[in-house]
Amino acid sequence: MARIAIDVLLKRELLDPQGRATERALPDLGFAGVSDVRIGKHLELDVDADGEELAARVEAMCAGFLTNPVVETYRWRVIAEHERADAPVTTTVDA
Amino acid sequence: MARIAIDVLLKRELLDPQGRATERALPDLGFAGVSDVRIGKHLELDVDADGEELAARVEAMCAGFLTNPVVETYRWRVIAEHERADAPVTTTVDA
Predict the structure, then answer these.
(1) Do A38 and B74 touch (CB under 8 A)?
(2) What is the sign of the dihedral through the CA atoms of A12, B47, B63 and A90?
(3) Which domains does chain A have, with CATH numbers?
(4) What confidence tens digit (pLDDT) does each residue in A25-53 have?
(5) DSSP H helical ranges for chain A
(6) Do A12 and B86 touch (CB under 8 A)?
(7) Who among B25, B31, B42 is closest to A9 (CB)?
(8) How many A-B residue pairs are in contact by the CB < 8 A criterion?
């Protein structure tokens, strides 16, 4: 069992309207010096496999269902519990 | 100047309908053994800063504009050129 993170973006040569709109809005909001903004999908999922079988299954899922290889590229990695984007923030609560 | 990747997910305690729908579709498509699917946003952008200033600016952007802290959590990291989700695939072309 492994926790997998997959990042999906439009191919670099394609216009990314969402990224462009965000980039244009940032200076007016006080965030200058930001460029080349690209916005896509982030997926996290548990896969019940390890090693080469894990890699084969993730690649098959990405290429066959989770992304559109015509217009998108992706990158995936195994992540630890504390690397999840939805990991709870550690807070101290007084008793 | 640094290339930043930001992953955004709904908080873990909230229902993620897109992730749930994907998880339910996978077995019928031949991808068994996948669970706890969460789907959110992935952003990549260049920020013209380094060190502590970079961290402060990315945190301010994430909390103030790029995510909704009421329902979402995020995680960001500095990435190298080859770690971009839209890095071109290396292909060999015969002359």
Answers:
(1) no
(2) positive
(3) 2-81 (3.30.1280.10)
(4) 999 999 999 999 999 999 999 999 999 99
(5) 17-25, 51-61
(6) yes
(7) B42
(8) 141
